[in-house]
Write a structure and sequence with these properties.
Radius of gyration: 18 Å
CATH superfamily: Integrin alpha, N-terminal
CATH class: Mainly Beta
CATH architecture: 7 Propeller
Number of strands: 18
Oligomer: single chain
Strand order of the largest sheet: 1-10-11-12-13-17
Number of helices: 1
Helix content: under 10%
Shape: globular
Length: 277
Amino acid sequence: MSQNKFDSCITHTADWAFFPDHSADFLGPYSGCVFAKPQPASPWVDLPPQRITGDYGGPFDLFGHSIATSNGRLFVGAPLQDLGAQDSGSVHVFSFIDRSWREEALLLPDVARTCLWFGSTLAADGDRLAVSAPSAGDHCGNSGEVYVFECEAGDWMLIEKKTSSLPAALYSFGSELDLEGDRLSVTSRPRPFCSGGNPIVAEYRITDARRSVRTDITASCDDPETSTAPDTSHHPRNAAPSESNRSASGKTKSSRARSEGGLGSTELNWRPGPPAC
């Protein structure tokens, strides 16, 4: 099992240590990369550190904003990559082949949309991967979506997409993920104007039949009428020189993932998350 939050950190396997840097500028401002270094006991210890960048990389992709590992694979989120729509996002899947890390698949949302931020958070276990798009919603409304992919015979398929039953104006669904076997936990964090609010965690069980159990949630917020427009003051585009701005229409790529119905999930319960910092 492997998971991470919005802020990427060093991820270790038995043979490798991965160091993400989503602000790296090898392919332009904030294009991002991941450095892979063999562990001391790794059979590949003789190899120098490798710099990993994804296909179709460019400025402001934030490649490496999230990473996860499972079954010898490395998953890297690039939530601002423009593949189909500006800031729609992507997830790149790598395997170690012929002494180097090579991209084997590119995962995209079923429908590319502006400001989706698909790939912001990842969680992997076995041949399953959960991907969040916490900024999904009307005009970046931050209601959030979570996608579950599964690899069968080398082909990645989208088997489920979940949205929150919480008030979209109050919570960002998918800000944290945890995947273990057939259990998926999705954290929803309160919007910034909700003073004193705590995260709420939804737990799901992935099953062989699509069905949902509704659970009512009461969320408290001091000022629910406050505007929910997202804070874009720290957006990388606003920090970089204007002449480096990219076009959202120049890159397209179809995902190798397929949406085929397949598995579903049952919503088990909701529980309070840890207190907000």
